[in-house]
Specification:
Blueprint lengths: L16 H6 L2 H8 L6 E5 L2 H8 L7 H13 L29 H13 L4 E4 L22 H9 L2 H8 L9 H6 L5 E6 L8 E7 L2 E7 L8 H4 L1 H16 L8 E9 L2 E9 L11 H5 L20 E2 L19 H7 L4 H17 L16
Parallel strand pairs: 5-8
Antiparallel strand pairs: 1-3, 2-3, 4-5, 4-6, 6-7
Bound molecules: adenosine-5'-triphosphate and magnesium ion.
The site of adenosine-5'-triphosphate has 22 residues, from strand 2, strand 3 and strand 7.
Length: 372
């Protein structure tokens, strides 16, 4: 889910708890397994949820050991240093709490990472910790061991939102919101080298695709406007044949990856509402207006607004919405004198992660890796 600007956003409330639940990963994954990236779902034990919500940032001891053990298993032995450089002397480090321990959960995690080929993309029921990528050694969400996963989850406000207020923007009765319990899950998706140019977000209202947007709006991709009709056609076909009759709601947003003509992969399904980033559409137009391209046949002769919106030129790019997250929330907290301990702990962990992963050079698969 996307939280940017929600506070300032003019509220046009429509979203229901049931719709949010239907977009939870484990609710849609079984139905669309064949059409999406292979993933493992691990239920989160309550103690682990409590750990994620606790203020102090300390990694479970065994996960750090696992991280070291993992070095032997990695195909490329040169990726890791033998020793962790102890830059933080006892003088300057704040004492941290006893490391927690989740042996059973952690062994499930380790097995799942192996099953997914050793590199995974983590998320909870709805959100990935995208706001925390600054903390990983290569600034991506690629995880190869449990401590990578813990660190990202622990550092993310998006994850906290999933855990504390998933129904905040739903219109249901407050009692229902409080009574609805969520079975939290960790999703580990097989890591794929995705080309951001091939990602699109599609807005479905009343079982009709009413809008498609380039997913990453901070770049101009020349081929998108040049291939608009083909992209729209592929997405419409994917929607009608794969998604439409197999998703329980009539309004939602789905994200797709179009690797090449006719080859589409479902990436995610999100609630139809302001909690999802409208990208090149505004929620006001999606919720209230009938976009001009969906006018009844015969009512309009000229289609003025294409279904697929994209950045049309180099000058049309939007600022990266995650720029703000390059500086973590904790820096803001420390500036206000609120939580300096947490910042020190996160920085300590970041340095420790980076010394464990000194070679940040790419070991990436070719971009065409997705799809076999
Ligand atoms: N398996 C994967 N491997 C590598 N990168 C991935 C993978 N899955 C997703 N990504 C990248 O991460 C981005 C965010 O993923 P995803 O949409 O699942 O997160 P989210 O929290 O649901 O985002 P939103 O809040 O916008 O719905 C994707 O746009 C894609 O670029
Ligand atoms: Mg999503």
């Amino acid at each position: 889910m996307f939280l940017k600007d929600l506070v300032n956003y003019k509220s046009i409330e429509t979203m229901k708890i049931s719709e949010v639940l239907n977009c939870s990963f484990s609710a849609w994954y079984p139905q669309f397994k064949e059409y999406t990236i292979k993933s493992q779902i691990i239920p989160l034990p309550q103690e682990f949820v409590d750990y994620l919500l606790a203020d102090q940032v300390v990694l479970p001891e065994s996960s750090v050991a696992l991280s070291a053990a993992h070095q032997d298993e990695d195909e490329d032995d040169n990726r890791y240093a033998d020793n962790v450089v102890d830059w933080a002397t006892e003088d300057i480090m704040t004492p941290v709490a006893e490391p927690p321990s989740f042996p059973e959960f952690e062994s499930l995690l380790k097995i799942a990472i192996r099953r997914m080929g050793g590199k995974v993309f983590p998320k909870l029921n709805w959100s990935a910790p995208r706001d925390a990528s600054w903390i990983s050694f290569d600034r991506t969400l690629k995880c190869t061991c449990p401590s990578d996963v813990y660190l990202l989850l622990k550092s993310s406000d998006f994850i906290s939102h999933d855990l504390t207020e998933p129904f905040k923007f739903c219109t249901d009765d407050e009692n229902l919101k409080n009574e609805t319990t969520v079975k939290y899950e960790l999703v580990l998706r097989k890591w794929r080298e995705l080309n951001p140019a091939y990602e699109f977000r599609c807005f479905v209202k009343g079982n009709t695709v009413i809008g498609i947007s380039q997913r990453h709006t901070d770049m101009y991709y020349k081929f998108i406007p040049e291939n608009r009709k083909e992209i729209e056609g592929d997405i419409q076909a994917f929607f009608y044949h794969i998604i439409k009759d197999n998703f329980p709601d009539k309004s939602y947003c789905f994200d797709v990856y179009r690797r090449c003509q006719g080859k589409l992969v479902l990436l995610d399904i999100n609630p139809f509402g302001e909690v999802t980033d409208g990208l090149l559409y505004t929620w006001e137009e999606l919720l209230t207006d009938k976009p001009s391209h969906t006018e009844e046949e015969g009512e309009v002769d000229e289609i003025t607004d294409p279904l697929l919106r994209c950045v049309e030129s180099e000058t049309g790019v939007q600022s990266n919405p995650y720029g703000a997250y390059a500086v973590p929330k904790d820096f803001v907290d420390i500036a206000h004198g609120e939580d300096p301990t947490k910042l020190m702990q996160l920085l300590q962990l970041k340095v420790s992660q980076q010394t464990n992963h000194p070679d940040s050079s790419s070991d990436e698969e070719p971009e065409s890796a997705l799809g076999s």
